Amino acid sequence: MTTADIRIEPWTDADLALLRRVNTPEMKKHVGGPETEEQLLVRHRRYLDFVPSGLGCMYRIVLLPEGGSVGTVGYGTRTWEGATVHEMGWNVLPAHQGRGIAVAATRAAVAAARREAAHRYLHAFPSVDNPASNAVCAKAGFTLLGETDFEFPPGRHMRSHNWRVDLANSD
Ligand SMILES: CC(C)(COP(=O)(O)OP(=O)(O)OC[C@H]1O[C@@H](n2cnc3c(N)ncnc32)[C@H](O)[C@@H]1OP(=O)(O)O)[C@@H](O)C(=O)NCCC(=O)NCCS
């Protein structure tokens, strides 16, 4: 599958329904489990605010040619080791996994970040126990910097891989 088979579209108010479909024990097992409705609404508003505030961009992943939403990909801004960086994450609904959609969508989102992101470095911090997400990093052009302790959600510590793309360098 190539990027021609999916499209990424910036987050809209209608995508709260997609966020709810992603919020299952199966989908959230590597990130501390499902969120409450209140947490989901906070997340949804944060995603809507990414572009106006210049912090990043969240997208829904649209499968072509049908046009249905099959997942999410996008990036925000965080502090990491004293610097302001971007952080990317992705989700593909179970019925559509294993077809290269996450890799294609992540490549498209990284390409958009190269054009639009405010900061030079884009990280991803998948759990060391999440082989699919680590494979997405490797196949979408991230470089593995090493293993790190990562706190997500606040108060929950996990062992993660620290992957990074240099948005200023397309090699
Ligand atoms: C991670 C996730 C987005 C991958 O979505 P996907 O569309 O199935 O991924 P792709 O089809 O693009 O596959 C990417 C690679 O991962 C590999 N992969 C997929 N599932 C795997 C698994 N369970 N174990 C090992 N490798 C796996 C695929 O084989 C593929 O590599 P390959 O082409 O070399 O075979 C999806 O599993 C998901 O949404 N998981 C739950 C949410 C999550 O954990 N998000 C990341 C938080 S850091």
- Name of the CATH class: Alpha Beta
- Approximately what portion of the residues adopt beta-strand conformation? 25-35%
Number of spatially distinct domains? 1
> Which sheet architecture does the biggest sheet show?
7 strands, mixed
Query: What's the count of strands?
Result: 7
Physical arrangement of strands within the biggest beta sheet: 1-2-3-4-5-7-6
CATH topology group: Aminopeptidase
* Overall pLDDT metric: 95
Give me the strand/helix succession. Answer: EHHEEEHEHEE
Number of helices: 4
| Rg over CA atoms | 15 Å
Q: State the helicity in percent bands.
A: 25-40%
The CATH architecture can be named as: 3-Layer(aba) Sandwich
- Provide the CATH superfamily: Gcn5-related N-acetyltransferase (GNAT)
Which word captures the global form? Answer: globular
Distance between the termini: 22 Å
Structural class from helices and strands?
Answer: alpha+beta
Bound molecules: coenzyme A
Unreliable segments (pLDDT under 50, ≥5 consecutive)? Answer: none
